[in-house]
Design brief:
Layout (H helix, E strand, L loop, with lengths): L6 H7 L6 E4 L3 E5 L7 E7 L14 H17 L7 E3 L15 E5 L13
Antiparallel strand pairs: 1-2, 2-3, 3-5, 4-5
The structure holds adenosine monophosphate and zinc ion.
């Protein structure tokens, strides 16, 4: 459940530094290194699960923890009136780091439209 070459596994281990927000037995949260908004952090499982598509029934407690902690951490970061979560999945979803992560983004009131599709 650990990939020695994975950048986010290295962050969990402290082999790569990060600005940590939170950690428990199942998840780890840290500020994104290239924030797209004043508040932009990532919540990741401690287990190396490459993408959301790889999540299984056994991961339900961890996935629930990611979602319930998002609101707490966003509020603590100043997002008292709302925020956005996003999980990019796979090639089509333009996922860059293949260790499951949920983006939590906030700051602008309101945030820009969710996704702009070219027509
Ligand atoms: P995604 O495109 O959904 O895979 O997003 C990967 C995110 O990881 C990007 O927003 C990056 O800025 C972020 N990221 C990559 N390396 C680091 C790092 N060392 N510390 C914090 N965030 C990182
Ligand atoms: Zn990993």
């Amino acid at each position: 459940m650990h990939d020695p070459d994975c950048i986010f596994c290295k962050i969990i281990d402290g082999r790569i530094p990060s600005r940590k927000l939170y950690e428990d037995d199942l998840i780890f949260a840290f500020h994104d290194i290239r924030p797209v908004a004043p508040v932009h952090f990532l919540i990741i499982p401690k287990a190396h699960i490459p993408t959301l598509s790889d999540a299984e029934t056994a991961h339900e407690a961890m996935l629930g923890r990611m979602l319930t902690k998002a609101g707490d951490l966003a509020r603590e970061a100043g997002c008292t009136d709302g925020f956005r979560t996003l999980i990019n999945c796979g090639r089509v979803g333009r996922q860059e780091v293949y260790h499951l992560h949920m983006h939590v983004v906030g700051g602008p009131d309101p945030l820009p439209p969710m996704i702009v599709f070219e027509r």
